[in-house]
Amino acid sequence: MFDHVKMELINNVDDKKVQEIVNSILVNGWVGSPILYHNSIGLITGSHRVKALTIINEMYENENLTDDQVKIVEKINNTEEYVLDVTYIIDEWMENNPGEEWEYDSIGKLFEGTEVEIWKDEIVEW
After folding, report:
1. How far apart are CA 35 and CA 37, in angstroms?
2. What is the pLDDT of residues 64-103, one digit of tens each?
3. Residue 15 DSSP label
4. Residues 68, 84, 11, 118: is their CA dihedral positive or negative?
5. Bridge partners, 103 (sequence order)
6. Sheet of strand 42-45, all strands in order from the earlier edge strand to the far edge
7. Pick from 86, 79, 75, 72: which is nearest to 123 by CA?
8. DSSP string of 47-70?
9. Tell me: the pLDDT tens digits for 99-112?
10. Are the C-beta atoms of 34 and 26 separated by less than 8 Å?
């Protein structure tokens, strides 16, 4: 489950925030922007959400979810609404901006004018 986000976290996570995300997902499903990743770079944004999905996956495997929670979690996993592969966007940006650097805490310039921009108000690192 959640195979697309089994990757190394890029930021330290606040356990309280992670637990809040776990609780929200188990009640409301996936809300907000997807986790962004690059095929070779790895995680671009979403360390807290990745950690939350890791916890939920453990709960799922250990059968510690209610039937309703299982339905929510399986829907998220099956529709892959939780994750977006942005490899082609980043690769194109890097090709068009040779030698220019970008930082994980300021990724807006990578995604301006792309499909990701619809989440700019939700992505702290924008």
Report:
1. 7
2. 999 999 999 999 999 998 999 999 999 999 999 999 999 9
3. H
4. negative
5. 106
6. 42-45, 35-38, 83-85
7. 86
8. HHHHHHHHHHHHHHHTT-S-HHHH
9. 999 999 999 999 99
10. no
